[in-house]
Design goal:
about 220 residues; Pectate Lyase C-like; two-stranded antiparallel ribbon; two-stranded parallel sheet; about 10% helix
Length: about 220
């Protein structure tokens, strides 16, 4: 029983819990991160994060094959997430967190990944054509056979990244850090045991002078 302003018991009020308090005590709904999230679910989560002015949090989530063109996901937390074959063409992913994420074969054409954290991410076969990854952190990232044609890589840190077979023709590599990055040449791939195509660089670019590591 509650007391009113005059210190008297108010019989009209009870100890019954209000819906908000009751909901707060309920256990949060469990999310199955092993099952792929649908594009509809992801867009709802994106809209919710925008309304709350908080970054999208999907650490370790399965987003494989989702169709998310032009999605707005600035600063999204996607560490160790699975984005194999995901369509993020034209998406805004500035300052996104993708360390250790599996982004193999993802479509990132024209996407903005400026200042993204992609250390150790698997971007093999990813399509980054005309994307922007300026000032991104991509140390030890796997970019084998990735398409970075005409991509803006200005100021990105790609030290010790694997660029074997990657296509960087027309890419802007100004001030990019490439020390220790692995690459291949035509001579090194002309064998029966050829595993990777040769790395393609912008015209006039000298990978040896940039500190890259030639892998036979």
């Amino acid at each position: 029983m509650f007391k009113n302003w005059f210190g008297q018991q108010d019989s009209k009020r009870s100890d019954k819990k209000f819906p908000v308090a009751q909901a707060a005590e309920e256990q949060p709904r469990k999310v199955d991160y092993d099952a792929p999230l649908s594009a509809e679910t992801i867009f709802k989560l994106i809209n919710g994060s925008i309304q709350c002015r908080q970054p999208l949090y999907l650490v370790g989530a399965n987003i494989n094959g989702a169709n998310l063109p032009h999605a707005l996901m600035p600063g999204a937390r996607l560490a160790n997430a699975k984005l194999i074959g995901t369509n993020l063409q034209g998406a805004f992913l500035g300052k996104v967190w993708l360390p250790g994420a599996d982004v193999r074969g993802a479509d990132l054409r024209g996407a903005c990944l400026s200042e993204a954290i992609m250390n150790g991410a698997n971007l093999r076969f990813a399509n980054l054509r005309k994307a922007t990854v300026s000032a991104a952190h991509m140390e030890m990232a796997d970019l084998r056979e990735a398409d970075l044609t005409n991509t803006v890589v200005k100021g990105a840190d790609m030290q010790n990244a694997d660029l074997r077979g990657a296509d960087l023709y027309g890419a802007d590599l100004e001030d990019a850090k490439l020390e220790g990055a692995k690459y291949t040449t035509v001579e090194g791939t002309l064998s029966l045991n050829m595993e990777h195509m040769p790395t393609i660089w912008p015209e006039g670019f000298d990978p040896e002078a940039a500190g890259c590591h030639l892998v036979d």
